[in-house]
Amino acid sequence: MSGPQRRLIWLTVYAVAMAYLESAVVVYLRAIYYPEGFSFPFVLIEPGMAAIEVGREAATLIMLLSVTAAMSTDRWEWFLAFCLSFGIWDIFYYVWLWVFLGWPPSLLTTDILFLIPVPWVGPVLAPVIVSVALIIGSLLLLRLKYQGTRLSFPPWLWGLAIAGGGVVLLSFTLDFRVILAQMEPPPFRWGLFAGGVTCGAAALALGVSRLAGGSTNKA
């Protein structure tokens, strides 16, 4: 087994374990704030506890960033390893919640996805789609890199990818005021989400195609 393969295997183990820890904390929070089971309207917790919860989410991201940064000094390997670990962590977070609570009952169940900087809301299927795309994209690009391809993309391709990510983020956060007003969330904006995912997928496909077909991209 090569060094990169070993690192990725241990990174996967770390992400799955982190997902267990994250889901365990959510089990405790739901037992306190949703003793009858999680449902909307959103429960507004006291400011001190809310600050701790936001800090916990930020700490989770910092931990993922830190462990991937420790894997390599190469910025591309670090970035792609973070994307890979984030996708694995996010999917297994829901896997563990289902193991612990039998929740979500469906991939279309609406959840509070994140709280930074405002509440993100959407069906579980939506972040799972994003996570699967992150895993596939990072593995494809890491494979090319380990084969000796120099990873480089033109600004317009970066723009397309960032725009897609921004639209996906907007689909999760556009209705945050409704959630904070403790009202039922409106139907998820699948059209907006699909547009963002399409932009991101197109950027990935074009980028991989350019790298795989370029004879001058070998490091």
Question: How would you summarize what this structure contains?
Answer:
The chain has 219 residues and is mainly α.
Describe this structure in words.
The structure is a single chain. This protein is mainly α and 219 residues long. It has one domain. It is built from seven helices and two strands. The chain has helices spanning 3-33, 47-71, 75-101, 125-146, 155-173, 176-180, 190-213, and strands at 110-114, 120-123. The protein has a two-stranded antiparallel ribbon. A hairpin with a 5-residue loop joins strand 1 and strand 2 (120-123). Helix 1 runs antiparallel to helix 2 and helix 4 (125-146) runs parallel beside helix 7 (190-213). The longest helix is centred in the N-terminal third of the chain and has 31 residues, at 3-33. It starts with a helix and ends in a 6-residue tail after the last helix.
β-strand amount? under 5%
Total DSSP helices: 7
Order of helices and strands: HHHEEHHHH
Instruction: Report the major sheet.
Output: 2 strands, antiparallel
The whole-angstrom Rg is 19 Å
Helix content: 55-70%
Q: How many domains?
A: 1
Number of distinct beta strands? 2
Terminal CA distance: 23 Å
Q: Structural class from helices and strands? A: mainly alpha
Please mark out the parts with pLDDT under 50 across 5 or more consecutive residues, or reply none: none
Which strand order spans the largest sheet, edge to edge or round the barrel?
Answer: 1-2
Tell the overall outline: globular
Average pLDDT for all residues:
93
